[in-house]
Amino acid sequence: MDTKSKHTFHIPVMGISYTIDSPIKTAHLGISSVMSIFEHNMVEKMRKYYAEKFNFPFEPITTKTEDFRAERITSYLNLVDEIVKEKFDKLKNSVVEKREELEKYFELLPSLSDLRQQFDEMVANNTNIQDIQKWLNENLTLGGIDVNIMTKLDGPNYKGNEQLSVEHNNAHTAIRGYANSTLESSIVLSAGMNPRLFGYMEKFDDFFPDTNGNFKKKIIIKVSDYRSALIQGKFFAKKGLWVSEFRVESGLNCGGHLFASDGYLLGPILEEFKNNRETLLEITYKMFKDALDKKGKKAPDTIPEVKLTAQGGVGTADEHDFLINYFDVDSVGWGTPYLLVPEATSIDEQTMKVLSDAKEEDLYLSKASPLGVPFNNVRGSSKDIERKQLAANGNPGSACPKRFLAFDTTYSDKALCTASTKFINIKVDELKAENLSQEEYDSKYATITEKECLCNGLTNSVLLVYNLDTRMEGEAVSVCPGPNMAYYSGTSTLKQMVDHIYGRMNILNTDSRPNMFIKELKMYIDFLKDKMDEAPSPFTDKQIKYFDTFQTNLNNGIEYYKKMFAENRDSVKETYDKVISDLENLELELKQFMIQAV
Prior knowledge:
The protein is of the alpha/beta class and about 600 residues long.
């Protein structure tokens, strides 16, 4: 591990708005975070807010501008870049007076950081100011000002009734907005492969290495397993584009949208990366070099750096260290706990209280997303309450002014969002025609009206925090924490959370929190149970094959964890007996359920 200057954690993207200004809050302190940028309406409001706050000129980019969506994104990212650099310069130049932020920078670093120790020694030895200033300029680094794009959110846009060209699709627009910005950072591509979108990235020089082999803009892919990383890494390499980081996320034990594997658990997934990392690099580098040669571009003489990072359910310093030391990951993503850190994320007070009070039973796997994939949710959010009230009053659904999640073409050539009033009314009319019993009708009605307008719900929180215009969105908030939220209560300062990550303090609200690997295993067993309960019987051959594969992968994962924990008993420390007991109980639970199911 490089302990000179880097933190060993990052703040992943959360929702649409929760981390939209996290870099402004944390990058100058050396902490990396990720923004979601495709919601250009919110981005424009944030640009106006921060331009006024930091005395930058502001000219609105209206819908009359030809490429207004991309230009709004570019302009906001350029502003964030300027603000962060200005704050960073002030921090480095504050060595004589107003040193609070400078001292905070070093206080947040890992305790064994060489950088931290060197600074303390210079101060203790009364090193002259000029030498300290020179050292700061040479050694302090910014945290990453990174952006996220869900590759599936690439629906078309329209001018009147005329569909615009592919370049104006939502994800394409976001790519262009980022590529044209001044940022030197990374773009995180999540939610799977989109060949057309990935190919579009060839149009922008910033994604290619310069003559010195450096990348102005790096590519990060969020992946579910090694196979996905190899496929996508090769796809980019064949175009002369290099994936600088593979970001592995738990399929269930994380916030937001979930892309569950077929029972393939995080530990075995990371083991496969650990064992095949060099092979992955060698394969993709050859393709990358050949592609650049064909394009007449100079390839780096050696394999460029590729990081492996992991996220999803981590909650203690021991788990954090284990991921780094055992699986050789370069950084660990801490998402959900940071929803309770106002210094790092933007959450309105009402939602903050819902999150702070949430217990295990309040955090659940929902069908709220119009994308049709599982979505981690919390009971009691204002959007959840609003949705239920509208459904109870016979006015279900939401207006759909943004259309980011409009993908269903069952009833119209122009896709509809399944959370929209128009779509739900069609489904309800069909339901009424079935002449069901009241009990059956109510059950199906609840299913139809479970979808939330996430475009607005996941945007509103930051608008409420800064008292910005919510006429388009309303004021109801959706929030999508991972199950880890149950083990944190109340707000924390940035320093408290970082100290918790590095084991300098403990902010958990319980001593009985399950190990992150055990928690994920339990979630996958429950996920399999739900899948089998929902499937009509008798099962088809295809379903039987799927369930058998799922069970086999879970059993293989359990055997892997037995061996892993036994070989690393000192790392698990005093929790070893509980971890093994939990593992054995879950193994028995899975076995008994499968016997009964058959």
